[in-house]
Amino acid sequence: MFRISSILTCAALTLSLGAALTRPAAAQAQAVTVNIPFDFSANDQMVPAGTYRISLQAPRYLSFVDTRSTRKQYLMLVQPTGEQNSKDRGRLIFRQYGDSNYLYQVWMPGQGEGRQFARSRTEQETLRELKSSSLAQVNLPTGPAQH
Predict the structure, then answer these.
(1) Could you tell me which residues come within 8 angstroms of residue 134 by beta carbon, excluding any fewer than 6 positions away?
(2) 57-72 pLDDT, tens digit each
(3) Which of 11, 37, 53, 69 is the most buried (most CB within 10 A)?
(4) Do the domain assignments include residue 15?
């Protein structure tokens, strides 16, 4: 009985994630391409420095696609910030602890509400060890992504 319940739960999660990622393009936010000059972490995923096409796939999923030949995709869980974008321009905000960078907030150009990341277990451990942090910002272009 437990095995059938587990299989059904996994199938339901897969279907709901698949439905969220295959919504019509009109429901998705625009994509922007940005160069991130340092390695960073988000959702306990290590992401190398590079140029990425960023898009909001659903209200709770953010996609980072490496624009190099690898085209590796990082799909990340985000939550609304509850704040409004008074600057009306896009930006990525990172928490920095020494040489470690953690993506904190993403503000897509032209969208009122930003998205943020919960502190991962790794970030919490880093914060406990260093006890100080700073913020870094990478501005996003306002035009559409270059493919």
Answers:
(1) 95, 96
(2) 888 899 999 998 778 9
(3) 53
(4) no
